[in-house]
Amino acid sequence: MLLLYLFLNMKNLGNKTKKERKKKVKTIKSDRKKEKKNFINWLKEHRAIIIISVIIIMILVTSGTKVFLYLNFIVGNDIIIHLDADKEDLNLVRGGEESVNFKASVITNPFCAAECESSFEDISNNKTIDYDSFKLTPGMPITKEYKIRMDDFGEGQKLYRFRLECIGSASFLCHTKGESTSRSILVTVEYNLTEDEKILKDDLKNKLINLKERLSDLATNANEVDLVINELDKGVSIDETKKEFDNAEKEISKLIENLNVLKKIWGNQDYYELNKKFKDIDIESIKTADLIIKIDKNISDSIFLYNNLANELNETRERLKEIMKFLVLDENLSLEINDNIKVFNSVINSFKLRNEISKKRIEVYSINYSVDKLHESIKSYERGETLKRSIEVDINYDILCRLNQTCVKRPSISERANQTEFELKNACDEIEQLKVIYLNISKNNYANRSTDAIKKDIAENYLNELPEDGYNNEIIKEILLAYATNSTEGIYDINSTEEIVEQIIKDQPESCQKPNITYYDLNNESIELIKEEETMPVKIGIEFDEPFPKCCVFGKCSVCCLSEECVNDPSKFPVVFVHGHSVNKNTAADYSLDVFNKLQKELEKDGYLNAGSISLYTPVDTSPGVWGLSQAPVSIKASYYFDVFKEPENYVVVQTKSENIDTYALRLREIIQTIKYRTGKPRVVIIAHSMGGLVSRRYLQIFGEDDVEKLIMIGTPNKGIEGGIASFCPIVGSELACRDMKKDSLFINKLNSGKLPEIPIYNIIGNGCPIDGEPADGTVQVKNVLLEGENVNNIFVNGTCNGLEKLHSKMLDTNEYPEVYDIIIRALTIKQS
User: What pLDDT, on a 0 to 100 scale, did the predictor assign at position 294?
Assistant: First the structure.
């Protein structure tokens, strides 16, 4: 019951509450309507005041925004370009292709827009691949993709660069200098041989070396042939052979020229084209070699024949000399000798004339044959005549012996039959000796015919004693038979000595009488033989050395800078731009890099490749030395306003602009090490502006000068800053850096108390904008820029200041102060002694 009572009581209470709530809502609505009506009435009554107030507020807000934005611009917040690439170093083979993506964005006043131009350049061939213009607004980045295809042969490097240049569009709420700012990224592409090309290259190298050796042998052989052709041509008409040889020599020269062509293709590393050309030249070399071999054989045959003919003539002369020594009693035979001498002399004269080898051969063979026949005739004549006279003497001595007058030992008839040596002169001398004997026998002139019988008897005895196979039998028989036939028949009385002696004296052999003929003078001029001498081997000065990688920049190609000489060449050391103190510590650090844009652009005109910028956050993940392979030195903008720390998967970049100069010097060291790694060079050249010079000097003081070739400073406060600048500096800039730069600070004292580095220092000093009545560049007094030292060259630049634009910064403007750039380029090109 109690529960039921409670339930009914609560229900009544709820109904009562609802009624009260409805009544309250109605009251509130009524009140709101009254308030709204009252507010509208108030607005109507104060409309003019409200409108004026809103306008005033809008003007104040807009003006404030404009002032704020302008102040922001004054302290350095103009357009900042951010440019990134997903790849900066590629490795390709011929026919390979890879895409590179560039992401570009700008940071600027949100009311500003940037008018931008982008270009993708093939720096190696000095041409623009793509150009575009567009508008960039903050928070709206764009991406550009480019495919890089490698069609070059061999090994080497190609350079590409993406460049973005933007300029702000000025408007009511957009303040900008109206000057362009730019960023660029250098993309290096190393290309290598395919596996097939490597195999082909090795095969071709062996073939080319072999071809060179064959051509060397061919040229050597041709020189040897040329020598003997010149000698042979003096006496033998070989016009057709000479013409053929001249053509062969031209072919050899052409082949050597073509070998140079092959070397050029080898250097260009186009091995497929090289293989094709090699085959053509190889075929031509074989044809030319065959031609030279044919000519060489023909010439050798002609020389062999010529020398044989010359030898035969020389031998014929000797035979004629021998013939002329013979004692010839026959007049006709003497005339024949003279005729042969005359013909021989004529042949000698003809042989020395330039004529056909066939003519020489006919004449030589003819005189040889004639002299040979004559020689045989003379020998036969001497043999017969000698035997005839010797036997006649033998018979006379036998007669004398029978008569007991004189017995002389004489050769037997058997010995005469086998006699092989014959000298008519000896036989004639024996006759003269016999005549002496007869002269000594004093008898009367009585004579009878009995001596013929004695001679016949002796001759018959000789015939009987003649051996059957005697060498001279035929001749001896003929001689003896003459005695036997011509002698008178009868009997002689051996006791009638006196009569017989008288008769044999009367019939004694006649003396040898030479005919009255004088021989012609024999031509004794010897004919020189042609010698086929070896010449020095022909060395072809064409070497197929290992091709060096080819690097092209600004449209010019050369061997990549890999040699020790090139790597250590000071003219190829990289130039590092080190910026100064940022006026506004809150501006992006990237803005500090823009001050060198114009200098960097001018340097590229003088051959320094613009490699963009580098900082600690630049990852060292590229191949070492890729920036230093081309023959052009690079220029790089560096920022010490970045630090980096590593997370497990990547690096995190942190902008830190509130550190002291010692910290910046440490970062500069890391930057220089990175540049040395990426260029492969042992040293760098520093171009530093303002505080950047202090950072660089401190780096040199701490780490030494081994990595720096020279230092160029522009407007550096070497003795610190003072006055209003020193007071204003920490308000907008980095407090620690400003403290370090202050004149007489601990940092400045430490920096200047130490020894200056022993490298050339070029100190550019601006003058023309006095501070407190003292010469200055509008920011730093001249006295505080001056630096004393043996290696220091202080150079003054006069200028002016215009409002907020100080000479201190304007010196970096090559349009305003070209003399500053001239000083820099001269300093870069001066060689250290």
Answer: 93
**DSSP 3-state of 84:** strand
- Closest residue by Cα to residue 455 from 408, 385, 393, 383: 393
Q: Are 691 and 809 in contact (CB under 8 A)?
A: no
Q: How many CB atoms lie within 10 A of CB 180?
A: 18
Count Cα atoms within 13 angstroms, Cβ side, for 779. Answer: 27
pLDDT of 446:
39
Tokens 């306008």 sit on residue: 55
In a domain, 424, yes or no: yes
* Range(s) of the domain holding residue 758: 561-833
Q: Rounded distance, CA 352 to CA 545, Å?
A: 52
Q: Report residues of the chain scoring pLDDT below 70.
A: 1-37, 39, 43-48, 50, 53-78, 109, 170-178, 405-406, 441-450, 486-501, 584-586, 588-589, 615-621, 644-654, 833
Q: Are residues 565 and 462 in the same domain?
A: no
- 392 with 438, same domain: the answer is yes
User: Pairing mode, if any, of strands 114-122 and 127-136?
Assistant: antiparallel
- Residue 137 is predicted with a pLDDT of 87
Same domain, 310 and 342: no
Q: Is 77 within a domain?
A: no
* Tokens, residue 285: 């070399």
- What CA–CA distance (Å, rounded) separates 464 from 9? 204
Spell out the residues 6+ positions from residue 778 whose beta carbon is closer than 8 angstroms to its own.
Answer: 766, 769, 771, 801, 806, 807, 808
Phi first, then psi, for residue 102 (nearest 5°) are -115, 130
pLDDT at 180: 81
Distance CA 618, CA 630 (A): 21
Q: Are residues 366 and 299 in the same domain?
A: no
**Would 829 be classed as within a structural domain?**
yes
Instruction: Note the pLDDT tens digit of each residue in 551-574.
Output: 999 999 999 999 999 999 999 999
Residue 92 lies in a domain: no
**What is the spatial distance between Cα 608 and Cα 789, in angstroms, rounded to a whole number?**
29
The alpha carbon dihedral of 217, 223, 224, 226 has a sign of positive
Give the 3-state secondary structure of 144-207.
Answer: EEEEEECCCCCCEEEEEEEEEEEEECCECCECCCCCCEEEEEEEEEEEECCHHHHHHHHHHHHH
Query: What's the structural domain count of the chain?
Result: 3
